[in-house]
Amino acid sequence: MKISFLGAIGEVTGSKFLLTTKKGQKILLDCGMYQGKGLETDAMNRDLGFEPSEIDFLLLSHAHIDHSGLIPYLINNGFEGTVFCTPATRDLCSILLPDAGKIQEADTHTFNKKRSAQNLPPVEPIYTQKDAFLSLNSFVSIPYGKEFKFCDEVSLLFTDAGHVLGGAAVNLTVREEGEVIKRICYTGDVGRYNKRILKDPQAFPQADYLITESTYGNRTHAPIENAEIELLRIVKETCVVNRGKLIIPSFAIGRAQEMIYALDRLHNMHLLPEINVFVDSPLAISATDIFRLHTECFNDEMLESLRNDPDPFGFDKLHYIRTIDASKHLNTLVKPCIIISASGMMEAGRVKHHIANNIENKRTTILAVGYCSPNTLGAKILRGDKSVSIFGRKYKVRAQAKTLFSYSGHADYLELTKFLECQDFSKIKQTFIVHGEDESRAFFKSHLESKGLQNVCMPEFREVVEL
Ligand SMILES: [Zn+2]
User: Fold this and answer.
1) Distance of CA 387 from the midpoint of ligand 1 (Å)
2) For 34-49, what is each residue's pLDDT tens digit?
3) In this structure, is the dihedral angle defined by the CA atoms of residues 245, 251, 253 and 255, taken in order, positive or negative?
4) Per the CB 3.0–4.6 Å rule, which of 115, 157, 238, 316 could disulfide with 246?
5) pLDDT tens, residue by residue, 367-400
6) Whole-prediction pTM value?
7) Domain boundaries 2-219+409-466, CATH class
8) Ligand 1 centre distance from Cα of residue 143 (Å)
9) The CATH classification of domain 224-407, taken from the options 1.20.120.790, 3.40.50.10890, 3.40.50.12100, 1.10.10.60
10) From ligand 1's centre to the CA of 152, what distance in Å?
11) DSSP-assigned letter for residue 236
12) In degrees, to the nearest 5, what angle opens at C-alpha 224 toward C-alphas 365 and 379?
């Protein structure tokens, strides 16, 4: 059996790993899109590094676009197999992939205008919203904890990685003539412990080979327990003391719901000032509806709290904004308020408009609650650039920029280690560190080695390794 590392190598987007069994079955682990690399991104996404029609199965760890985003493209180019994932992942993909298709169409439209001005022929979007809807027909969902033999040689078991609703570690058991010969675990993305909504990352069966993420392989996060207190402090400082707007750019899925639930809890405890909270992201609203359907992913405290507050994502001061007109109307508000809007890295979506409209106001606070890749608008604001370009116009940065990374969707390196420590390290033959910048991977490699894990490697892009 061999594995090829086809994406998310030395970076955190574009996850794609290809397993080829002894009998030649090709099993793809994730089919993620590269994001945030400007013009280069499109070419990188179109060059998969394999022939889609040769892939037999796709095992999807979770719904985030950097793991699922190229599924419609894969299908358009000849993939006829099945996509296996958990039920919540399938439901999130049903909104995320069409949204990505819509973005591809809009971006291509803008790009083609520029090409037309240069007398160049138009290009096609990598896929359309319609392609994305059609791709959902290829999905089959398998719940957590149910071993499923999807081909003669390999069975899969999804275990909860505590990262996003439905997010799973993919555990594979490889058999030859009925005998188990290898166990492989691909962690997908791993979440933090002690979150408010989702379960902790769960222990997974002993593996011989590990493929682990390392987004925060060299960093630690502030304790999650203090996150709400810190959030409340920032809300009061911005909205009560400075009388300004608090803009929270947030990933539409996961982070947005955590922010909404945190504010809901503060409201229930009568701690939240009397200000309006706007969730201005149609995708986040649809995702919140999906959260309500998948209580199997909730932790015990969250389930318990549902008895007292059946709507953990709603309170009287919270307003969901769907239409563009209502979104534009927020610009006219002068009173302090909180606006939660996507995207998290501030590169796209309605939040970009809110930032453009408020970044030159010193009363505003922009609060990042998740990772921002280098070169994104989010990263530029956070590193303290004095001016930034938004929609082709320069803006002075007068707003305050703050971070609250306790809400990170990714475990820090100590939490990642805790997650991996459900394993007997002496039984692991090889560990591959993926999904992290190289500095992060290198630090995590030496940390794992110091914990007794042997044969830890940082595979290179498109490297093929025999297992
Ligand atoms: Zn993810």
Assistant:
1) 30
2) 987 667 888 999 999 9
3) negative
4) 238
5) 999 888 888 899 999 999 999 999 999 999 999 9
6) 0.92
7) alpha beta
8) 18
9) 3.40.50.10890
10) 30
11) I
12) 40
